[in-house]
Amino acid sequence: MQLRTRAMLAGVAVAALGLAGCSNDAAPSAPAAGGGGAGAPPAAAANCPLASAPDPGNSAPPTGVPMASGAPKLEAKPTYKVAFSQNASNNPWRLAETASMQDEATKLGYQLTVTDANNDQSKQIQDIKGLIAQKPDAMFVAPITEQLGNVVAEAAGAGIPVFLLDRNVDPAAAKPGEDFVTVIVSDFVQQGKRAAWAMAQATGGNATIIELEGTTGSSPAIDRKKGFDETITQCPGLQVVVSQSADFTRADGQEVTETLLQSHPDATAVYAHNDEMALGAIAAIRAAGKVPGQDIKVVSIDGSRDALTAVDAGDLYTSVESNPRFGPKAFETMKQYAEGQVPVKLVLEDRLFNKANAAQNIESAY
Questions:
Q1: pLDDT at 46
Q2: 115 strand-pairing partners
Q3: What pTM, to 2 d.p., does this model score?
Q4: Are 84 and 96 in contact (CB under 8 A)?
């Protein structure tokens, strides 16, 4: 596997529409500063306001979100022929998302065709072209990267309303509200900010951090890095010494962390853009003869069952939720569009899992 190092990404955070997420559970109360990790809470650094701040929570609802007015129309009718282009099935999050889409389609009596790009962008482009040829009433796409805009616009050109799930595409190639109806996502920037807050809580504001990035060019990798890297500037003692892609997989997370721990043996923390990479990192930390949760604090994003189990065990400090169960919201949005209009961006609310609430949520996690 080729290791890729990227420079810090700058940009303006996209405004988020605060809608109810796929889960009806409310966000938990913020834990006490420094709480939730293995062992005694670290002393907070005097120059790190994050270490004594409350959980920043979800982003505030924005105003002025435009409606999707120029996208292909969808006729209101009792049943639909629908397509879903999934980008991969190589981790529990993707499997849970696909299952949620299939379950909801079955519940509604819709015909759903699912393709799997196997984490290959060229294959996803061909998958979408093949789905266009089948002339579905509507199409859902979970893009591998933001470079899928052209083929999304191609679907719109064929008169198919497209709904993006969990990742966005480059608006220069596919215009929101015209080339696709809407994108339904979590606020990835805010997830990164909450992860930064959790890192300050875990370490007291002093840490030498290895950052494991997701798939290069994907919306969550870009935005989770942005939110985290910008937020830790509030604490001079929190320093990312190396940032490397591990492609959102557990195996790559372990391999990359093993390599980076050799070149940075002084690392005291790992920030992973998803749980699978974090779980790989925990295995690498153990292989290096260190204790996860004590010698090296780990913070991640997603809220998987394995991650919550690791939080409960003290190996993982916090997992910021990114709910994969898009089915109910996706088909509800499609129906709303058939009956009228929807905003060009819908953003879900996410919870935060720590030692205080992980155990009671393991059974319901994906």
A1: 73
A2: 85
A3: 0.86
A4: no
State the number of CA atoms in the 13 A half-sphere of 78 facing the CB: 1
Residue 134: CB atoms within 10 Å: 11
Calculate the alpha carbon distances from 201 to 5, 192, 354 in Å.
27, 14, 11
DSSP states of 101-155 as a string?
HHHHHHHHT-EEEEEE-TT-HHHHHHHHHHHHHT--SEEEE--SSGGGHHHHHHH
What does 233-287 look like in DSSP terms, one character per residue? Answer: GG-TTEEEEEEEE-TT-HHHHHHHHHHHHHH-TT--EEEESSHHHHHHHHHHHHH
Sheet of strand 182-186: strand arrangement: 18-19, 345-348, 182-186, 162-165, 138-141, 81-86, 111-116
Token couple for 109:
């009596």
> Would the CA dihedral through 169, 170, 171, 172 be positive or negative?
negative
Residue entry with tokens 């959980």 = 55
Other CB atoms within a 10 A radius of the CB of residue 359 amount to 14
Positions of the chain with pLDDT lower than 70, given as ranges: 1-44, 62
CA distances from 114 to 15, 85, 160, 355 (A): 30, 6, 16, 37
Can you give the pLDDT at residue 41? Answer: 54
Copy the structure tokens of residue 267.
Answer: 């690392």
- For residue 84, give the 3-state DSSP assignment: strand
pLDDT digits (tens, 9 = 90+) for 151-179: 999 999 999 999 999 999 999 999 999 99
State residue 30's pLDDT score: 41
